[in-house]
């Protein structure tokens, strides 16, 4: 059998590539929150408002109007049920 032993040149090459990729990533990412340009951590809630976030993007004003509209509809339904309960 001519199987290659574990380790060897391929493993060293993969380790070097992984280390250089890690070093490259470390050089690109800022080390502090100030250099990141945020008041806090760069992996915090502020990620929601960047282009890195996945999913549905909804303007905060739309969410506000939907919430107020929902509250108004609940109050209106309560008022309607009270009025129709006294009439019938």
From TrEMBL:
Keywords: Endoplasmic reticulum, Membrane, Protein transport, Translocation, Transmembrane, Transmembrane helix, Transport. InterPro entries: Sec61-beta/Sbh, SecG/Sec61-beta/Sbh. It is a single-pass membrane protein. One of its GO terms (biological process) is intracellular protein transport. Residues 1-44 are annotated as: Disordered. GO terms for cellular component: Sec61 translocon complex. It is found in: Endoplasmic reticulum membrane. The chain crosses the membrane at residues 61-80. The keyword Phosphoprotein does not apply. It holds the Pfam family Sec61_beta. Its main location: endoplasmic reticulum. Necessary for protein translocation in the endoplasmic reticulum. Belongs to the SEC61-beta family. This is Protein transport protein Sec61 subunit beta.
């Amino acid at each position: 059998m001519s199987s290659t032993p574990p380790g060897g040149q391929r493993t060293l090459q993969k380790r070097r590539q992984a280390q250089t990729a890690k070093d490259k990533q470390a050089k690109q990412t800022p080390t502090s929150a100030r250099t990141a340009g945020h008041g806090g951590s760069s992996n915090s809630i502020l990620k929601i408002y960047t282009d890195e976030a996945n999913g549905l993007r909804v303007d905060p004003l739309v969410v506000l109007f939907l919430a107020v509209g929902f509250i108004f509809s609940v109050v209106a339904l309560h008022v309607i049920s009270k009025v129709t309960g006294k009439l019938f």
